Hints:
With 245 residues, this protein is α/β, with parallel strands linked by helices. It folds into two domains: 14-76, no CATH class; 133-242, no CATH class. Helices cover 47% and strands 17% of the residues. It contains ten helices and eight strands. It has helices at residues 2-5, 19-23, 32-46, 85-93, 104-117, 141-159, 161-165, 178-184, 192-206, 222-242; strands spanning 12-14, 51-55, 60-65, 78-82, 97-100, 129-137, 187-190, 210-214. Strands 1, 4, 5, 6, 7 and 8 form a six-stranded parallel beta sheet that branches. Strand 5 (97-100), helix 5 and strand 6 (129-137) form a beta-alpha-beta unit. Helix 4 packs parallel to helix 5 (104-117), helix 5 (104-117) crosses helix 9 and helix 9 (192-206) packs across helix 10. It is globular, with a radius of gyration of 20 Å. The two termini are 37 Å apart. The model has no long low-confidence stretch (mean pLDDT 92).
Amino acid sequence: MLDQLSGGRLDLGIGRGAPVELSFFGVSAEETQDRYSEAAEIVLKAMETNRLTHSGRYFSMYDVPITLSPIQKPYPPLWYGTMKPETARWAAENSVNIACVGKSKTIRAITDVYRAHWKAQPTQGMPLLGMVRIVVIAGSDVQARALAAPAYARWIETFTYLSRTRDLPVPPNLPTSFEQALDDGFCLVGSTSTVLKALKRQVIEAGVTYVMCQLAFGDLPLAASLQTISFMRSTIMPALHRSPS
C-alpha cells in the first residue's frame, strides 16, 4: 500500500528483532535466524503473487488472496541492518542493500564479506552498501557539539531502555556516550569542512557506497536539523558530487 501511495518510491527495511524483544513472544535466540529467513521469504513471495501458499518449519498458510501488489517489481528495494560480517552473507546472496553501524574498520569487515559473496545477475548492479551516521552541522565545531551532545544523551537513553531495564548489554557497535560516538566516527559533528573531511575518509575506510544520515534524534531542536539539511544541500552534496570516485 505504501508503495502504491508513494508512486513507487518506497524502500523497505527488514531485519530480526533484538533477543530481548523476541523473548516477549517466547522466541528463543537460537531459532531467530531460521525464523527470520522463513518470514522474509514469505513477505517477498507475497509481493510477487496474487495467491500465497507456504508450508515451512514455523509458518504455514494456504491460498491466501493478495489483492494489492507494489508498483516496483518484483518488490521495493530492500534494506537489511547488518551488524556482523556473518550476517552480510545472507544479504549478499539475496542482493539486499545493507545498513551498517560501527567503526569504519568494523564496517569494512562487513562490506568485504558482502562483496565476496555477492553474485551479479544480468542487468543488475551492486546493491548499496550503506553506513548509518548521526550528522549535525553548524557554523563551527563548538556550536555543532553544543547542539549534538545533549541530544545524543537523550537519544541513547531511550534507545537502550529495554537493555537497561532488563540488565542486558546494549546493542553491539553502539557508542553509549557522545564522546565515544565522536571517537568511533558514529557521530559526524562540526562545521561543513570538518564533517566533509570525516565523511570522505570514512567512506573509503569502510568500503561503503551509501551513507544514511540521521539528522533528527533525541531532543535536537528542529532548527538544528533544518540547518544541517541546508548545509548538506548547499555544501556537502555538491562537494561529494565533484569528488573522484
